[in-house]
Write a structure and sequence with these properties.
Number of helices: 3
Number of strands: 9
Radius of gyration: 17 Å
Structural class: alpha+beta
Strand order of the largest sheet: 1-2-3-4-5
Helix content: 10-25%
Length: 151
């Protein structure tokens, strides 16, 4: 299933703002604009504000209040890093960020334990066939993660 297209960092922030409003969450946003400010720019030379193609990259860091603790770092390269109670999901497509957050705050995301390979995994299913899984270190099992454990 396709997600609505989010062509820029600003549209992704607006979509996350709608999710926060729907779940009554506080939200803070920090914007970094310019190649000299963004964290993952490799196409610009040192101390340059613009990329070599003349574009002005825009990156945003979003913190959502409530349980679980969630941060979203939206990159200019059409992807994001979402952290849920200390569990990092790298390279989530920017278009999938709102659906990812709805899954987490809507009670669809869960923790699953496995005997082999041993460990606990945070599983975030999205509409369609898209699912994200990341290993949860045993020492990081927060109350929210423990509450959402399924065997």
């Amino acid at each position: 299933m396709g997600h609505p297209r989010l062509p820029s960092t600003e549209t992704a922030v607006a979509a996350v703002r709608e999710v926060a409003r729907a779940y009554n969450l506080e939200m803070t946003v920090t914007d970094d604009i310019g190649a000299d400010q963004t964290s993952r720019r490799t196409s610009a030379s040192a101390f340059a504000v613009l990329d070599t193609d003349g574009s002005l990259p825009h990156e945003a860091f979003i913190e959502l209040g409530g349980a679980p603790a969630v941060t979203v770092q939206v990159f200019p390269e059409d992807d994001a890093k979402i952290t849920v109670d200390g569990v990092e999901f790298d390279d989530v497509p920017r278009d999938s960020v709102p659906a990812f957050l709805r899954s987490v705050y809507g009670g669809i995301a869960y923790v699953k334990g496995k005997f082999f390979p041993p460990g606990q995994w945070l599983v975030v299913p999205l509409p369609g066939d898209e699912t994200y899984k990341e290993l949860v270190p045993r020492t990081m099992l927060s109350p929210w993660l423990a509450r959402n454990f399924r065997s």
